Amino acid sequence: MNFIDLRSDTVTRPTAAMRAAMAAADVGDDVYGEDPTINQLERRAAEIFDKEAALFVPTGTMGNTIGIKVHTEHGQEVICESRAHILNYELSMMAWFAGCVARAIAAEDGTLTWKQIREQIRPLGPHAAPTGLIEVENTHNMAGGTVYAQDTLDEICEEAHKLGLPVHMDGARIFNAAAAQATTVARIAKHIDTVMFCLSKALGAPAGSMLVGPRNLIDKGRLYRKRLGGGMRQAGVLGAAGLIALEKMPARLGEDHANARWIAGELNKIDGIRADAAPPTNIVFFDVADTGLTAPAFSDELKARGVLINANSARRLRLLTHYDVSRDDCARAVEVIRATAATAAHDPVTR
After folding, report:
1. CA separation for the pair 333, 302 (Å, rounded)
2. Which domain holds residue 311?
3. CA distance from start to end of the chain
């Protein structure tokens, strides 16, 4: 069966151009700093973000872990949103490796304000762990791909820096944020101290993420990458695909966003289905509780019919559009969802 895979934009396959570039990549030993393709990728990432330096890492989790570690000391708190990826989906690496704990703040749409943050900052004292870092996620995965307003980000950075606090951004999908706001990643991250972004999600590279920021912190981060087992040798075969992802793929992200909005609109026409309206980027959550099926059961039914969408909770599923699914694929997926909901309505047994 040929599945329509909407589980995540991590399922994208490298393009033909990426595969050709990987086969022809000029390589060397990156631990020695001698891989010319990785060196080019790091220079280009730093240029695009208008930062001093960049570091190629195997995964976004490693990039965030290093980003937290270079800013903090053991025993500090990291302020983040309550559904943040660093808190819920990275195996407590901020505690395990950085020795920090999260100070989580719930924000309705996943985007924090300075007022919310300011109320939770802990000074150095004899009781509470002091605040060492503020982390923001843009776009916010579990809030439905929401995007920070630029003035909100700028205010967070300005006020945090006045207090001597750094700001790290989990920008796994920051290029989606830039496309949604018709701006550049450099403008979004202008006042952010360090940014992690993924090459392997919407940009389509087979593996790899980047950490960008001041040179002294990136140099420090390179040592942490080694400690975490991320020192790779002839990594240029991955860097070649990453360069294409960085240079060529952001321009097409609006197509994914349009497909996500279209899907959400169509889902809201189906009895028993409620989708979050007008998703800002490429992430759509929808509720299936009124169909009589649990979300995991609904997901199983979709899989049996050739559509892959993961349950996110007992009643909600999450789908992501990406360049490997066309508008026709999206339309077929909607019809499968419609048929599944209709079948459940005629056989209303909650599973």
Report:
1. 9
2. 252-346
3. 25
Is residue 68 located within the same domain as residue 195?
A: yes
Q: What is the pLDDT of residues 273-317, one digit of tens each?
A: 999 989 999 999 999 999 999 999 999 999 999 999 999 999 999
Q: Are residues 143 and 263 in the same domain?
A: no
Alpha carbon 154 to chain centroid, angstroms: 20
List the beta bridge partners of residue 168.
135, 194
In a domain, 144, yes or no: yes
pLDDT at residue 281, as a whole number: 98
pLDDT, position 344: 78
Instruction: Please report whether residue 198 resides in a domain.
Output: yes
Q: Within 13 Å and on the Cβ side, how many CA atoms surround 45?
A: 35
State the amino acid at position 76 in one-letter form: Q
Query: pTM score > 0.70 for this model?
Result: yes
How many domains, in total, are found in the chain? 2
CATH number, domain of 160, equals 3.40.640.10
